[in-house]
Amino acid sequence: LDNRPIGVFDSGLGGLTVVKQLKALLPNEDIVYFGDTGRVPYGTRSNETIIKYATQDVNFLQSFDVKMIIAACGTVSSVLPEEISKSFNIDYTGVLLPASQDACSKTKNKRIGVIGTSATINSGAYEKVIKSIIPDAEVFTNACPMFVPLVENGFIERDNKIAKLVAEDYLEMFKKENVDTLILGCTHFPIIKDIIGDVLGESVTLIDPGFSTAKIAKDILLKTNKLSENQSTSDINYFVSDTQSGFTKIASIFLGETVETSPKTVDLNN
Amino acid sequence: LDNRPIGVFDSGLGGLTVVKQLKALLPNEDIVYFGDTGRVPYGTRSNETIIKYATQDVNFLQSFDVKMIIAACGTVSSVLPEEISKSFNIDYTGVLLPASQDACSKTKNKRIGVIGTSATINSGAYEKVIKSIIPDAEVFTNACPMFVPLVENGFIERDNKIAKLVAEDYLEMFKKENVDTLILGCTHFPIIKDIIGDVLGESVTLIDPGFSTAKIAKDILLKTNKLSENQSTSDINYFVSDTQSGFTKIASIFLGETVETSPKTVDLNN
Predict the structure, then answer these.
(1) pLDDT tens digits, one per residue of B219-242
(2) Active-site position among B18, B71, B73, B259
(3) I need a surface site. Which of A87, A117, A123, B197 has the fewest CB within 10 A?
(4) Would you call A144 a catalytic residue per the annotation?
(5) What predicted TM-score, i.e. pTM, was given to this entire model?
(6) A41: cis peptide before it, omega within 30°?
(7) pLDDT on residue A231
(8) Average per-residue pLDDT in chain A?
(9) Distance between CA atoms of residues B21 and A147, nearest Å
(10) How far is CA A106 from the centre of its chain?
C-alpha cells in the first residue's frame, strides 16, 4: 500500500475531467494537479515544444514524490514518444491507450471515430494504436478545434444553438461513415457529451478517455499494490503556471463539483 | 529620412491585419514582424504576464535597430502602462489610442461600442481613453472571445451560419443601446467585419484599429522626418516563437495577400 499522491497534468484545466473520473473510481487517492495555464493551448504547438513542456510538467510533479503520473491531455498522450515516457522511471499513463482499448472493446462494426485537437488528429496516434489492437478496424478522424473555445466560453447547454451547429458541422462525416463508437479525444469534449450524443444518436457509443484512464490507473495501483490506505476522501492540490481570474468557475465546470481551494502558481520556464 | 524598419508585434499572427493597413498607407517602409505564437493567446493571461511578454517582445524588436514600435495587439495596448512604454525609449504606439481617437471623431450620438478579448474589455482601458476625449460619451463594451477561434478556424465567410449566430449573440446589446460607432478592439475582428456589419446594419460605423494605427504611424514618421527613402515596396521579415505548420495560410488570411516567405523561429524564454 502506498499513500503518496497521484500526479495529474494537462495543458490547462480540461484535465480535471480526468480527475473527476479518478475521484469517482479511486475516492481515497490524493491528487496533485498541474495545469499549464501559462502555456495553454498545447494543441497548436509544434511536437518539439509539446515534448519539452510535457517533460517539464512531469519533472514538476515528480518533485512531490507522486506514485504515478497521468497525462490528462489528449495532445501530450498523442505526441509524447514511449521512449520518453519510459525514461520518467515512474508508473505513467496517457489517455490514448486506455481510450483506444475501450473503443476496441465496444465497437461491433469495427468502424471507430476519433475527434480531438488538430495536434492529436494530425499525429495519427489514435489510428495507429487502434489498428494495433484491431488490425482490420476502420478509423475515421476529424479535428474539432472549435469545441475547446465553445466549452471555455460557456456555450455548453444542451440546447445551445451555436454549439449544436458546430457539432453538426464537425460530426456529419461520422454519421455518413456509419461509425458505432466515437472517442472524445480531448479533455474538454466530455463537457458537451450530450450535444455530441444528440447529433450522432444513441447508436453511437461515446468513449470518455477520462473514464477509460481512471480504470487503467486503478488496475495499475491494484497490480502494483499501491492503493492508498487513506479512509478520508481524496485531497486535491492545484498548481497552475499563470493565475486565472476565473479559476474556480472553470475548474468547477471540468471537475463537475465546486472547487473551493485556490491554485498555487509556479513558473516552469525558469 | 530614416530607412530603418518599423517593428510590429502581436501575441500571434492577428497583428498582420495592422501590417496590412501599414503597407497600404506606407508602402515603402520595411517591417520586422514578431508574432509570439509560442505564448499566444495573451488575452487570457494575467496582467503581470502580459506586461512581461510585451517587454520581451519589444526588446527583441529593438535588437533589429527599428525606428518605431507598434504593439499590434489589443490586449497589450490595453494592459501595458504608459510609464513602461515610455521607458522603451523609442517612438511607440499601441492600437488603443488611435482607435479611440478615430471613434470619437466619427460618433455623432456619443454612444460608442467596444468589442475585444476578455483582457481588453476587463481592463476598462478603451472606456477610460474615450472619456478622456469626449467626457460625456457613453461607452458600451462586450468581450467577444469566440470571434478569435472562429477566425482562426476559418468560419469567416460572410454567409457562415455559425459565425453569424455568434455575432448576433455578442452584438445584440449594441443594437439595443443604439451605438453609432463600434471599435473592433482585437486584431482578428476586421477579418469578419462583413459579418459584424451585417448584424449591426449600415448605421453603425466600424472602426478598424489597424487603419487608425497606420494613420498615426504615418503622422509620427512625418513629424519626426523619419519616412523611408526606399523606392521599392516594403520588405517584411517574419519572426515567430513557435513553428506553425499552417503559417503561410493563416498569415495570408490576416495580411490579405499571399505570404511567401517563411518565418524564423526564436525563443524569448531563454
Answers:
(1) 999 999 999 998 888 899 999 998
(2) B73
(3) A87
(4) no
(5) 0.88
(6) yes
(7) 83
(8) 94
(9) 32
(10) 19
Instruction: Judge whether B144 and B114 are in contact, CB under 8 Å.
Output: no
For residue B25, give the nearest of B238, B259, B185, B227 by alpha carbon.
B227
Dihedral angle sign, alpha carbons of residues B214, B219, B224, B230 = positive
User: Which one from A13, A40, A73, A240 is the annotated catalytic residue?
Assistant: A73
Higher pLDDT, A31 or B46: A31
Q: Are the C-beta atoms of B241 and B36 separated by less than 8 Å?
A: yes
Q: Which residues of B touch A49 (CB under 8 A)?
A: 38, 242
- The C-alpha cell that represents B90 in the structure block: 523609442
Q: Which of A45, A153, A162 sits opposite B162 (nearest CB)?
A: A162
Whole-Å CA distances, B94 to A119, B8, B19, B156, B216? 33, 10, 13, 26, 10
Residue A89 distance to chain B (closest CA, Å): 28
Q: Is the bond into A190 cis (omega within 30 degrees of 0)?
A: no
Does B49 contact A39 at a Cβ distance shorter than 8 Å? Answer: no
Show the low-confidence residues of chain A (pLDDT under 50).
Answer: none
8 A C-beta contact, residue A179 and residue A113: yes
For residues A174, A177, A178 and A184, what is the CA-based torsion angle, rounded to 10 degrees?
-30
**Active-site option among A32, A186, A204, A240:** A186
- Annotated active-site residue in B18, B80, B183, B186: B186
ipTM reported for the complex, 2 dp: 0.83
Strand ranges, E, within chain A? 6-10, 31-35, 68-71, 91-93, 111-116, 138-143, 181-184, 205-207, 236-240, 264-265
Is A165 in CB contact (< 8 Å) with chain B?
A: yes
- Annotated catalytic, A186? yes
Say whether A38 and B49 touch across the interface (CB within 8 A): yes
- Residue A94, SS3? coil
**pLDDT tens, residue by residue, B80-119:** 999 999 999 999 999 999 999 999 999 999 999 999 988 8
- Residue B146: list chain A partners with CB under 8 A: 149-150, 153, 155
In 3-state terms, what secondary structure has residue A146? coil
Question: pLDDT tens, B144-161?
Answer: 999 999 998 999 999 999
State the cell numbers at B96.
Answer: 488603443
Of A148, A165, A269, nearest to B165 by CB-CB distance is A165
Give the three cell numbers for residue B118: 476578455
Three cell numbers written together for A256: 463537475
Task: Output the pLDDT for position B118.
Answer: 85
Of the candidates A242, A113, A108, the one whose C-alpha atom is nearest the C-alpha of residue B51 is A242
Q: Please identify which residue in the block is written with the cell numbers 498541474.
A: A34
CA distance A221 to A5: 12
Mean predicted confidence (pLDDT) in B248-253: 90
Name the B residues in 79-138 with CB < 8 Å from any A CB. Answer: 122
